[in-house]
Amino acid sequence: MSPVSDQQPRRLLLVHAHPDDESIVTGATMARYAAEGARVTLVTCTLGEGGEVIPAELAHLTADRDDTLGEHRIGELAAAMRELGVEDFRFLGGPGRYRDSGMMGVAENDAPGCFWRAGVDEAAGHLVAVVREVRPQVLVTYDEQGGYGHPDHIQAHRVALRAYELAADPAYRPELGAAWRIAKVYYARMPRSVIERGLREAAEKAAFPGVARVSDVPGVVPDETVTTVLDGTAYAGAKAAAMRAHVTQITVDGEFFALSNDLGQPLLATEYFELVRGGLGPDRPETDLFAGVEG
Ligand SMILES: [Zn+2]
């Protein structure tokens, strides 16, 4: 086993649902820790095969036409990771192991092979292997609602939390490596006052035909729920470039962006988290995901 822990004392694992979530939700955080020498490992659970496509010349990629969007998005994710300086990115169980389940309530939720229908323990086993290899001190994922109710985001939460438990259990599949207890687990969050202000600014300044609603934005919580504020100002450019690399999914316009619905949202370089396992560092709010973790 490679001695990852000897070379890179700080190790951050992020579990996201689709290619593009990592850049939108945690792009500045990933760029900052990568630049600071931490090992940043991204596990993406699906290829995002069910997504819509923004550029007309790529419209043929969608599931109802060529159904090659998943493959295409592997390339977009790789390009985004170059912008963020992240070398270690993987798909849960390998590329295409779990298919995008679509938005809640659509027929794709019941398709064999989709992530929503995967057994949580079976899927978590793939993640335990990554946890025991990389031995991260910090795990970032979504809350039990997946931030906003998308089945793949809910399932990413379940699988990540299950893997957190199983990876620490020495009796669970010792062939996957030595047991590892992740010190801190965070949910990605968005303070309500921050997104409300950002959406007001988008309504005034952004060039998109409309503006998203608060309910379109994942992870919105009362401000006081946020425990940790990550200043990624120095990495705003890297985050915007990573989002632009997801050509089929995101349009970036200055300090704003839109998904395929063409509704403007603020592109925020400060990212927010809620600690849900482990102990907080000394600062309130915390300004470092590794605060209090032995190096
Ligand atoms: Zn997603």
TrEMBL record:
| Coiled-coil residue spans | none
> What is written in the cofactor note of this entry?
Binds 1 zinc ion per subunit.
As cofactor, the record names:
Zn(2+)
Q: What is its EC number?
A: 3.5.1.103
GO MF terms on file?
N-acetylglucosaminylinositol deacetylase activity; zinc ion binding
Kindly state which keywords UniProt assigns to this record, in alphabetical order.
Hydrolase, Metal-binding, Zinc
Instruction: Name the GO terms of the biological process aspect.
Output: mycothiol biosynthetic process
> In which domain of life is the source organism classified?
Bacteria
Pfam families, per this entry? PIG-L
- The residues listed in the UniProt record as binding Zn(2+), with positions renumbered to this chain, are H18, D21, H153
Catalytic reactions of this protein: 1D-myo-inositol 2-acetamido-2-deoxy-alpha-D-glucopyranoside + H2O = 1D-myo-inositol 2-amino-2-deoxy-alpha-D-glucopyranoside + acetate
Annotated transmembrane regions:
none
* Family assignment from sequence similarity: Belongs to the MshB deacetylase family.
User: What does this chain do?
Assistant: Catalyzes the deacetylation of 1D-myo-inositol 2-acetamido-2-deoxy-alpha-D-glucopyranoside (GlcNAc-Ins) in the mycothiol biosynthesis pathway.
Q: Which NCBIfam families match?
A: mycothiol_MshB (TIGR03445)
Q: What is this protein called?
A: 1D-myo-inositol 2-acetamido-2-deoxy-alpha-D-glucopyranoside deacetylase
Q: Which organism is it from?
A: Kitasatospora camelliae
Gene designation = mshB
